[in-house]
Amino acid sequence: MQRDLDAFVQTACAFDPTDSLLPFTVQGVLAGWMKRSFAERLTEWPEFFSVRQRGVGMLGDFETPLHRSVAIAEVVESLATETVINGWRGELVTVAETFYSPPLFHIERAASRYFGLTMYASHLNGLTMRHGEMHMWIAQRADAKAVDPGKLDNLAAGRIARGMSPFETLVKESFEEAGIPPELAKTSISTGAVRCKREVEEGLHHEIMFVHDLILPETFTPQNQDGEVSGFQCVPVAEMMARLEKNPDEFTVDAALVVLDCLIRRGYINPNRKDYLEIIHALRP
Fold it and tell me: At the top level of CATH, which class does the domain 2-13+119-283 belong to?
C-alpha cells in the first residue's frame, strides 16, 4: 500500500515533458510545453510563432510583456472560439521564468495547460483541536464545478491571478470558499511550497502551490460564500492519512499533495516508510 501512495505522488509530480511534448520558449526562456497537435494550430500565426520540429518559439519582434500579451490574447481568443481551448475563465495569470522574475506575458487562465505554463496557487490547511486530537477541515467541491466535481479539496485554495501575491490570494480565497474572516485568515502560517507536474488531456499541468496552515477555533464552522463548495468535513488527521493511503483519487490531485505535505511536517509520514524520501523529493519544487 505504501508503494501505491508513492506511485500516486510520482504520477502527480514527476512527469517528464521532454518525452512527449514540445518546448515553448519566449525571449530565450523556457516558458512551457505543448502537444504537437496544439503546436500545429499555432502555425496559423506565423507572424507570432516559429513552429519547428524541436519546439515552438515566440518571435522576437514582441519586445515587451504588453506586446506579447496582446499577440497571445488574439491567438487564445481565436482558439477558444473554435473550442480548441475550453473552460474560459476571464482571468489573467502571469507567466515568468520564476514567480519572482519579471513577467514575460499575461494570458487567459484557461490556456495555461495547453501552453504547459508554470502556474502558481495558494492552498490552506484548516486545522483545529477537538477532544485533544488534531483535526483537519476539508471541502467537497460542488457538482457543478468544471474541474474535479464532487472531489475532496483543501479548505481553501485558488490560482494566483495577475497582480496578486500568495498571501493576498489566500485571504481572498479563504473568505470566498470557507467564510473565514480576513483578520483570522491573516494569522495563517506560510509553511513552504509543493509542486504538481503531470500530463493532462490538454497538455501539461504544472503548478507550484504555496502552502499555509491555519489553526481554527474549535467553535468555527466553514461557510461557503461563492457556491463552489457543496459541504465540509472535519476529520482527525490520523484518519486523513488512512484515507490517502486507501484512495488518494478521492481528493483532487493538488489537494492530496498539500495534505501529504502537512502530514509529513506533522510526523504522520516519517522515515519509517521505505518511500519517505521519494515522496518528499517529488513534492518539492
Answer: alpha beta
